[in-house]
Amino acid sequence: MLTALPAKDWNYEAAAHLLNRAAFGGTPEEIEQCHAEGAEASVDRLLNPPRQPVRVSDRAWSEPRDATEMRQQLRSVKGHPQEQTAKRKELRKEQQSELQDLRTWWLTRMLDSGAPLVEKMSLFWHGHFATSAQKVKTAFPMWQQNVLFREHALGHFPALLQAVSRDPAMMGYLDLQQSKKDRPNESWAREVMELFNLGIGNYAEQDVKESARAFTGYRINQRHESFRYAVHQHDPTPKTFIGHTGNFSGDDILRLIVAEPACPRFIGRKLWRFFVEDEPSPEAVKNVAELLRRHDFELKPALHEVFLSADFYSDRVRRTQIKGPVQFLVQSCKLLGTSLPPVQATDGALRSMGQMLSSRRQT
Question: What is the DSSP string of 158-180?
Answer without folding.
Answer: HHHHHHHHT-HHHHHHTTGGG-B
